[in-house]
Amino acid sequence: MSEPMATEPMSTRRAGGARASGGTALLVAVALGALVAVGLGVFGKVHEPQFFSVSVAGFSSGTAVKSWLATLAVALALFQLVSAFAMYRLIPGGKAPAWMGTAHVWSGRLAVLASVPVAVHCLYALGFQSTDNRVLFHSLFGCFFYGAFVTKMILLTRKGLPGWVVPIAGGLLFFGLVYVWLTSALWFFQVNGIIL
Amino acid sequence: MKVRGPLITVVAAAALGAGILLVNVSQQPDAPQVGKPAATSTVTAAAKPAPPPAPAAPPAPAFPAKADYVGTIPTAAGHITLDISVEGDKAVAYACDGYTVESWLRGPAVAGTVSLTSKDKTSRLEGRLDGAAVVGTLSIGEKQWDFVAQPAAPPAGLYVYQDGDVRSSWIVDSTGTVTGVMRLDDGTAVPAPGLGTDGTAVIDGRTVTATRVQGASDV
Fold first, then answer.
1. Distance from the B206 Cα atom to the nearest Cα atom in chain A, whole angstroms
2. Which among A28, A56, A136, A153 is the top mutation candidate for probing chain B, defined by the most B β-carbons within 10 Å of its own β-carbon?
3. Pick from A78, B13, B88, B158: most CB atoms within 10 A?
4. Beta strands of A31-149 (E only): which ranges?
5. Which 3 state secondary structure label does DSSP give A110?
6. What is the C-alpha to C-alpha distance for residues A135 and A129, in angstroms, rounded to an integer?
7. What is the pTM of this model?
8. pLDDT tens digits, A122-170
C-alpha cells in the first residue's frame, strides 16, 4: 500500500487516471461496506427473532460459546494491531520480519471466521435490538464491524490508494470489534463470571 | 494471488455465515447441536422434503413430568418474558414485560399441548411441544404474539411472593436474567424489586424469600 506509483497501471484499468481511480475505489469500497452494514441491520430488524440457540459440548450455554469465540476474535485482533504497527514500522526495531505480513493476514482471517458464528446467532436468534444502550450500541457496532470488514478487504485489493487509507480502515475495524466485545462478552463475563 | 486474498477472506466469511444460517434454519425443530456432522446431516435432510414432517408426526409428544419453558417475545415497546411451567397434567404460565404488563395463566397440559387462560379470561395461551421447545401464541387483552419457549433448568423458572394483595412475580431465564412485575393492592403494576440468586428479594425494607411456582401450584 505504500508504493502507490509503482502500481499505476493496475488502477487505471477502470477509471481515467490513477488519482481519480484511487478516489473512486475508496468510495466504492466504503459504499459497499455501508451497504453490508445497513443490510445486516435491516435483516436483524426485519427478521423474526428465533431465540434458537446452538450449544457446544463443554460450554454452559450458547451465550458462553459466543462470548469465548468473541474473546478469541478480540485476542487475534490485538495481534492484528501489534503486527500492523510492526509492518508500518511504528514499533522500534526497524523493518518487520518477513513472516509478519503472513501472520497478519491469517490472524485476521481467523479472527473474522471466529466472529461469524457469533454474528449469525446474534442476527438470526436475537436480531437488531434497542432494549437498552448496551444492546443498541452492540447492535450498531456489530453491523458496523462487518461493513468495515468488507470495506477494508476491498481496499486491500486496490493499489494506488493514499497511504493512510488502509490503516484508518483497519483501525476502524479494530475499534468496531473491541466495542462489540465490550458490549457483549465482557458484559456476559461480568454478569456470569468467567465461565465456560 | 496477493490481490485476491482479501476477497477470498470475504467470500470465506460470507460462506461460513450462510452455512451456519442454513444449519440454524434447517435444524430449528431438532435438538440443539452444532458441528460439522450435524451440519451435513441436517443439510441433507433439508434437501429432501419428506423427513422434516416425520419427526413432528410420530406419537404425540408428551411433556416431562416437570418442566419449565422460558421464552422472550419482542414487542413494539420492548420484551415480554414468558415462562410456562408444566407439572403432571397441569400448567401455569406467567408473562410480563418487567414494567407494567403481567398475566398469570392456568390450564391443562395434555398430549404435548397447553391451553391456558387467565382468571379474568382476558389472556390466553395456546402452545404445543415442538422438539424440546414449546411454540404457540400468547394473547394479552387485544394483543397477540407468537412465541418459542425453550426448556430451562432450575434455578430458571417462576417465582412469586405474595403479601396480602401485593404480589411480586418473577421469571428467571436460563441465563439467570430476572424479569418481574409487582402488582399493588390497587391493581396497578410496577417493576418488581430485584430477585437475588438465593431467591430473596427486599420488599419495603424486608428481606423475603420468593416461592418457586410449578405447574400444579395454586397461585
1. 25
2. A153
3. B158
4. none
5. helix
6. 6
7. 0.53
8. 887 777 877 778 888 899 999 999 999 999 998 888 888 888 888 999 9
